[in-house]
């Protein structure tokens, strides 16, 4: 088969069992369900069990993506994990996932561009497949943000959750089905507005600055993502943005000329902000819901720490 691009052929996700509701949080810090729902739209989030690490979540999501596509470990020759919360520096999470799943000798890469990590990772896999360096890739976004959350800071602890999403990507000879060229970039002058640093290893952010940036700057970039796929936003079947705040998602969607039947992912309500995991998690649930027809265009867009952003259009597997 001649390869004219790559396409997402299966999806999977995993969330820890423990549910943390807004009422649970109200017993921990001075907050309440009304404030959280009205400011961010989150009702509950999942929290990893004691000892459960980023790699453990990534492994489960990857296993699901393999099973859902009917693949075995032998079918994969690249594993990329996007994460901002893996605490182990070596081995990287991709090697841990590969070992656990019995993937023999893959290119094994971790990427950290915070909340846009999955889209950066997907672009890397796409390019590797286009060049012939890779045949079939597992691309994963996985986070244990609970491990980098200050549980005494009500302005941040209500926002985050844990989880993982994964996709399998392989070559296609049909340009119609291929992942579109990525639009990616950053605003390094705003590096300080979201931080997890050595001396204060918890997520700290200037929430209103990020909110303003997201709601005023991103809509034109999202239109450009669609243009790179040769589409207008009103031709999209679904929009899966980073799940940072329901008001941001709805604010961006309002500025874009989506058709009434375009499905906008709002997984944040039940998952919170899971950084690099949020888009593949929401995508996997969307695909499994059957709301989007196979082959229909879905625009993915991540944004966050860095500040970084990236997006592309995929076709629903
Ligand atoms: C974080 C965010 C939800 C905060 O909402 P906000 O409307 O900006 O709220 P503010 O921080 O201005 O706080 C407003 C008030 O609520 C209070 N407050 C903060 N957290 C609270 C909580 N959990 N419960 C109750 N009150 C809270 C503040 O102390 C403040 O009180 P004051 O007016 O008496 O000083 C919002 O700014 C946001 O979502 N920003 C974008 C974050 C983002 O996308 N990050 C990307 C990460 S990838």
From TrEMBL:
This is Beta-ketoacyl-[acyl-carrier-protein] synthase III. It is an enzyme of class 2 (transferase). Residues 109-186 form the Beta-ketoacyl-[acyl-carrier-protein] synthase III N-terminal domain. PANTHER family: 3-OXOACYL-[ACYL-CARRIER-PROTEIN] SYNTHASE (PTHR43091), BETA-KETOACYL-[ACYL-CARRIER-PROTEIN] SYNTHASE III, CHLOROPLASTIC (PTHR43091:SF1). It catalyses: malonyl-[ACP] + acetyl-CoA + H(+) = 3-oxobutanoyl-[ACP] + CO2 + CoA. Belongs to the thiolase-like superfamily. FabH family. Keywords: Acyltransferase, Cytoplasm, Fatty acid biosynthesis, Fatty acid metabolism, Lipid biosynthesis, Lipid metabolism, Multifunctional enzyme, Transferase. Homodimer. Residues 243-247 are annotated as: ACP-binding. Pathway: Lipid metabolism; fatty acid biosynthesis. One of its GO terms (cellular component) is cytoplasm. GO terms for biological process: fatty acid biosynthetic process. The last Arg residue of the ACP-binding site is essential for the weak association between ACP/AcpP and FabH. GO terms for molecular function: 3-oxoacyl-[acyl-carrier-protein] synthase activity; beta-ketoacyl-acyl-carrier-protein synthase III activity. Its EC number is 2.3.1.180. Residues 227-315 form the Beta-ketoacyl-[acyl-carrier-protein] synthase III C-terminal domain. It is found in: Cytoplasm. The keyword Disulfide bond does not apply. The gene is fabH4.
């Amino acid at each position: 088969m001649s390869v004219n691009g790559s396409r997402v052929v299966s999806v999977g996700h995993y969330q820890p069992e423990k549910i943390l509701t807004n009422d649970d949080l109200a017993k921990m810090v001075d907050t309440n369900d009304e404030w959280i729902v009205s400011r961010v739209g989150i009702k509950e989030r999942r929290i990893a069990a004691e000892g459960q690490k980023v790699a453990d979540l990534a492994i489960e999501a990857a296993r699901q993506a393999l099973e859902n596509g009917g693949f075995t470990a032998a079918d994969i020759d690249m594993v990329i994990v996007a994460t901002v919360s893996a605490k182990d520096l070596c081995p990287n999470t991709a090697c841990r996932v590969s070992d656990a799943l019995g993937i023999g000798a893959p290119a094994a890469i971790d990427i950290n561009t915070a909340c846009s990590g999955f889209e950066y990772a997907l672009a890397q896999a796409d390019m590797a497949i286009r060049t012939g360096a890779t045949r079939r890739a597992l691309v994963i976004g996985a986070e244990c943000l609970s491990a980098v959350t200050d549980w005494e800071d009500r302005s941040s602890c209500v926002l985050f959750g844990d989880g993982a999403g994964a996709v399998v990507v392989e070559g296609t000879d049909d340009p119609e089905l291929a992942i579109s060229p990525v639009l990616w970039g950053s605003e390094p002058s705003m590096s300080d507005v979201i931080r997890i640093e050595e001396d204060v290893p918890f997520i700290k952010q200037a929430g209103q600055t990020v909110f303003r940036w997201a709601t005023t700057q991103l809509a034109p970039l999202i239109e450009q993502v669609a243009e790179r796929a040769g589409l207008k936003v009103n031709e999209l079947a679904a929009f899966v943005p980073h799940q940072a705040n329901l008001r941001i998602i709805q604010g961006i969607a309002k500025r874009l000329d989506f058709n009434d039947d375009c499905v906008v992912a709002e997984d944040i309500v039940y998952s919170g902000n899971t950084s690099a995991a949020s888009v593949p998690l929401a995508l996997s649930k969307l695909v499994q819901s059957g709301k989007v027809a196979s082959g229909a265009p879905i625009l993915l867009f991540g944004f966050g720490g860095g500040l970084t952003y990236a997006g592309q259009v995929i076709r629903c597997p």
